[in-house]
Every structure is written in structure tokens, then in C-alpha cells.
Predict the 3D structure of the following.
Amino acid sequence: MTTLDMTIVNVALPKITTSLSAPLDEVTWVINAYLLIYAALSIPSGRLGDIIGQRTIFVTGLCLFTVASALCGLSQNVFLLVGARLLQGIGSAFITATSLALLTSVVPPERRGTAMGIYASMAALASVVGPIVGGGIVSSVGWEWIFFVNVPIGILLFIGALAGIPNVKIERKHRFDIVGIVLSTLGLFGIIFSLVEGPTVHWGSVAGFLSVPEILIVSVILLVAFVFWERYQQEPFLPLGFFKNWTFSSMSLVNTILAFAHFGIVFLLTLYFESALGMSAFAAGLSILPEMLAILIVSPLAGRLSDKIGGKYVLIGGLLCFALGIGLFSLLSSTTANAFTFIAPLIIAGVGVGCSVGTVMGEAMRGVERAMLGTASGVISTSRLVGGSIGVAVITSFLQSQLFSATNSQLPATLQQVASNQQSAFTSYLNALAQNEPVAHASLSTTLQHLAYQLYTSSFILALRPTLGLVAILLVVGALLASTVKTRKKAVSAAAQPAKDSSVEVSSTPQTAS
């Protein structure tokens, strides 16, 4: 539900713009506000769960998310909607940062891989299915219902959480490092803001003298200050020794790479289907269904395999399989392709994602002390959100640079077919297509519009291939990084394991069966 709300809103933006009579640059903050606060608060939310109790923060997040969803649907102007989305983002951070910690706490080690696979399949599925579900809801009952639909689900989850999740809590008292939280939150907020807003303003000025590069520099300085501050705290918000665990650190980085690839590729393929092949948003969403189904089927199976042989080899195979699917997609891409052309590459890529997402989370959480599970969960959540944001930003910028290069190389030959008094209008029309902006075509004949579109689509294919290649190479790097992790020993029954952390108490309400 929290991941779905990152993608489902995209298809509703035109309707929201019309309904609330708001400019598009304000409405885009309906997406950005949610993502920014979600990413910035994930680690503090996880740490809060370690101190107060994971279930307490989880159900608090469910309440915030459910109430905020209702407020989103009831909003009568864009400012109220953005405010409600900020509240929804806080709820999402609470939910996500503690859910992985709770799962790790209550599921026995020998069944944890399967559980992670199911958990991951839902998250991966939501990122793909969002445009399809959003398009159907917006078309049938209105944009408000993409938020209202969360309310009954949230209420049922709240009741289920109280009835079915044990209250894992830490007996000893902790200090809450306020300065550390402020520094890390502001630093992460600034970086995510720059990545989200950068492409929109062409990496220039955001407001007056304030530019994206300046915000990035200040954000990095804040994170450096955060590192120095944490080194000298008795009980730091995020102990730096935490990252001496190579398995956790390397898996966090692989998780970032995986999110970079998955979020970026979903965005890139949707753009290709809509812009170069002329599909509707709904048809483009349906075209990615093979990947979605492969993820849904493979994730739990990959989790079971991880339980038997260890997650390292499943993860390496998944990352390479994902890269192979992307490579095949690149080879088959053309201006005459259709949805059926890419069934096999998308299935292969989906199998790779299904083998990777849950496995990387399971491997990352392996070996983390129970008292730090919430913090670790928050780091994993943040690495995924940061990776996804970087992926969309970098892939968009790289594709644009490749697209302009390909267009400019073909433009002189094409302009020979255009009358001199039409060349300026032709070039403007072509630039609008390349930047995915509304096109003014009143002064161009249908023949010239068709010629410009042909040039744009052929240039898009030339730009698409190296962009896909970049992602595939990064996934191979992720596989090499995963190969450095030690092979996990076979999990033993939870009942046979001695208690290692006496500071952790699991409430007997409700009881859990191992």
C-alpha cells in the first residue's frame, strides 16, 4: 500500500490539475512531498521503533496513513492535498521502517527467506501495478478514490496488527539523539529533493539564488557533520560501527543498485511504450504485466530456495538474470515493436527482480542485533528510496543527453526534406517531442509532423540502447559485490538457538507459533 502510493498518483496528475484548478508545477508536489518525507524519516522511524517498540510505531503509522488518505481524498485545493500527502509520507516511513524489523523478529530463521520473498513480491508488484490500478480507478470513479481505497484497507490492517503481531520491545532505556536525527533527516531530505526537482529545473535555480547544486552541497555537508557528531556520542542515533558489518553494508549498497535499476527501468519502459510506440498510459502499464506476474510467482519460490542454499547465490543469479532481461529488451527494441515483442525479456527481468528484492533484504538483516533491527530496517528502506530516486533522475538525464545527441546527428539530413521557411517550426516541434512537452503543430503540415515524429522515434531507439546498457552494467557490478559476502550457514530452528540478547522482550499478547 505504501509503495503503491508512490506510483499510483502519476496517472492521476492531469485529473487532479483540472479538478483543483492548479498549475502542474504545484500538483507535482503531490508526488514529491510524499517521497521526500518518506525517505527522510525512514531511518529515524526505525530507530524510534527500536526504542519505543516496533508494533507501537507500526500501528501508529497505519493510523497516520489511513487518516491522511481520507484527508487526501477530501482535499479541496492543492495545498491541503500536499499537506495530507506529507502526513501520509510520515505514516509510510513508520510502517515500512518497522515492518521489516517485525518480520525479522518473529519469523524463525529457517523460514525467513520465504517470508522475505512474499514481503518483497508485494513491494515489487506495487511499483509495477500502480499505473494500471491508478488508470482504472481514475477513469471509473475519480482521482479521489486512489486515496479513499486505502481507508478500509488501513482499518483492517490496524485491527489485524493489534491482533496478530507480537509487541517486540527493548527493556532497557535508550537516549534519543535529537541532533543526529535532525542532521541526517535534513541531509537526506536535501539530497532527495535535489534528485527529484533537479530534472524539472534542468539542475539550475529552484527559487531565486537557491540552485540544485547548492542544495546538494549543503546536504552533503550536513551528512558529513552527522558522521562527525555520531562518532562522539555515547549512544548515537546511527552507530557508525553498524556499517562494519560487511554483509549489511554491501547488501545496503546492492539494494540501492537494485532500486536504481528497477524504478528506473519501469519509468524508462513506460516512457518508451508511450512516447516511441504511441501507447496509452493504461496500455503501457498492461505491457509490463509479464514482469509483474514473474515477480509475483518467483519471489516466494526464491525465498524458499534461499532458506535451503543461502541467499548469496540466489541474489547473484537474480541480478544477472535481471541484467540479461534488460539486454534482450535492448536488442529487440525498435520503432515497429509492440507489447508482444518484449514478453520474453520482461519475464526474464521479472524472474531476476523476484530472485533479488527479498533476498537482498534477508541477507542485509542477517546478523543484525535484535536491538538494532528497526534502525537496520530504516537504512534498508532509505537505501531503496534513495536508489529509486537516483535511478529515475540519472536515467532521465542520461536518456535526454543520448536523445539530443542522436537527434542532432540525424537532423541535418532530415532538414534537407523541409522547406527553409518551415525548418524553424520543424525544429521547435522536434525539440518539444524530445523533451516530452506539449507540441504546437498549427504551422506544420501533417507530413512534416509525421517526419518529425519518425526522426524522434528513431533517435529514441538509439538513445534507449546505451541507457539500458548502463543499467545492465550496474546490475553486473551489483552481482560482483554480492559475491564478496560470506556464504550463510544453514539456518537452524529458532527453538534450538540460545537467546543472545536479553534486553529484548516479546510480549505474550499475542502469542506466536514458531
